[in-house]
Amino acid sequence: MTDALAAQAGEDAVFEEGVGAARIGTTAILTLNNPGRRNAFYPEMRRTLTATLKRLSADPQVRAIILTGAGGHFCTGADLSRVAARPAPPTAMETRENMKEVMELFRIITTASKPVIAAVEGDAFGAGCSIALACDLVVAAPTSRFGMSFTRIGLVPDMGMLYSLVERVGKTRARRMMMLSSVSDGAEAVRIGMADELAETGGVLDRALELAAAFADPAPIPIALIKSALASGIVSVEQMIAAELDLVPLGASSADCREGIAAFREKRKPVFQGR
User: Fold this and answer.
1) What is the residue extent of each domain of the chain?
2) Roughly how many angstroms between the first and final C-alpha of the chain, as a whole number?
3) How confident is the model at residue 9, as a pLDDT?
């Protein structure tokens, strides 16, 4: 069944500037589509991805978003062939302004009101690895490769890796991985916490679809508030207390909460509407 669903998503996808968008039930599937460059992204592609994620985050019919790649790979970061083709390298200020746009993509993945799932087949290198790590869940195949790669070309990790990798594997391991531009296969990524689940090669999108479908059941408001709280960073008891004092009343006063309690009493499945 899931194989057929995945195929249908590919057939129905609408492509715009290197990003395909499709819908299966309450799940949106975004496909990075630059297969000749292993889905390395360029500015217009990155902007399209950011804008599409923002739109889907506000769509009440969407409960989860999957990011995947075309042609057997996830994403190998920025398309360096375009950088090399410039008549002159970018100045520090040009790079800084470009990084503001890069951070917008990281911000929407981590703060979107919907869970974002990375379905990683093949290579996720550089900023492509960063995109995967920013997602709420990461599904990998044994043949997937997660590569830091930044220091090998004289760069500092970007697209949020200085934060997301530390969150997933801890500071000590992350420090070594980033400094040495480590490469991990899918099994190793799951073992150390870079990825959450291992699926068979060729079946990663199917498993991601199964995980995404599970988010059709919980109330969407608590999901959004949990993401917001964790993205803001809770590192002390006082911050936890402040967050719960602010967020718990929002959930408790929602129509969905009233519906959930009524459904519990009536022994039926709740119908949540994000209100």
Assistant:
1) 2-214, 220-266
2) 32
3) 52
CB-based contact 125:132 (threshold 8 Å): no
Chain centre distance of CA 1: 24
In one-letter notation, the amino acid at residue 109 is I
Question: 19-24 and 14-16: which strand pairing?
Answer: antiparallel
In whole angstroms, what is the distance from residue 88 CA to residue 24 CA? 44
Q: Name residue, tokens 């075309």.
A: 70
Residue 151 is classified by DSSP as: G
Of all helices (H) and strands (E), which one includes residue 194? Answer: none
**CATH class of segment(s) 2-214:** alpha beta
Are the C-beta atoms of 240 and 230 separated by less than 8 Å? no
**Cα 74 from Cα 67, distance rounded (Å):** 8
At 86-140, the pLDDT tens digits run 777 778 888 888 889 899 999 999 999 999 999 999 999 999 999 999 999 999 9
Residue 261: other Cβ atoms inside 10 A? 12
